Amino acid sequence: MKNNYITFTALAAALALVLGYVEHLIPLPIPIPGVKLGLSNLAVLFMLYTDRRAAWVVMFLKVLLSGLLFSGMSAFLFSCAGGILSLAAMHALHASGKFSVVGVSIAGGIFHNVGQILAAGLILRTGSVFYYLPFLIAAGLVTGIIIGIICKIVLARVHK
C-alpha cells in the first residue's frame, strides 16, 4: 500500500510540474502581473479529493521543483505563500463538506493570489502591491471556476 501511495503522489506531483510548465508556454493577453491559469493546481485539487495528506506533499513538491526549474527565489517564495494559504483554505472548505469542487477551487484560486500579495508586501516592504488584489481576486475567481469544472469532470471519470 505504501508503494502505491508514493507512486500515485509522485505521478500527481509530476503532472503538476508538467501542467505548470505548459502554463508558462501559454501567453495570456492580460496586462496584470501574476495572473495565470493555475493549471498545476488541478493536480493539487484532484489530490485533495483523493488523499488530503498527499495533496500537501504534491503542493510542496510542485512549488519546490517548479521554483528550482522554472523561476527564481522570489517567485518560489510567492508560490510557497500562495500554495500554503490556498491549500489551507481548500482543505478547510473540503473538510466542511458544504462546498462543491468548484467552490473549493474558487477559494483556492482566490487565496493563492492573496497569499502571493501578502508575501510580496512583506518581501518588498510596501503596501502598494495591495492595489493589485481586486484584479487578482477576480482572476482567481475565474480561474478557480475553470479549474474546478475540469477537476469535477476528471473526478467523475476516475471514480467510474
Q: How large is the radius of gyration?
A: 15 Å
Order of helices and strands: HHHHHH
Number of strand segments: 0
- The span between the termini is 21 Å
**Mean of residue pLDDT values:** 91
Q: Helical proportion?
A: over 70%
User: Globular, elongated, flat, extended or rod-shaped: what is the shape?
Assistant: globular
**By helix and strand content, what is the structural category?**
mainly alpha
Largest sheet: none
**Beta-strand content:** under 5%
How many helical stretches?
6
Transmembrane segments: 30-49, 101-124, 130-155
Keywords: Membrane, Transmembrane, Transmembrane helix
Protein name: Gx transporter family protein
Question: Topology, please?
Answer:
Layout: H1 2-25, H2 41-50, H3 52-70, H4 73-96, H5 101-124, H6 133-159
Explain this structure.
The chain crosses the membrane at residues 30-49, 101-124, 130-155. The chain has helices at 2-25, 41-50, 52-70, 73-96, 101-124, 133-159. The protein is 80% helix and 0% strand. It is mostly helical and 160 residues long. 38% of the residues are buried. It is built from six helices and no strands.
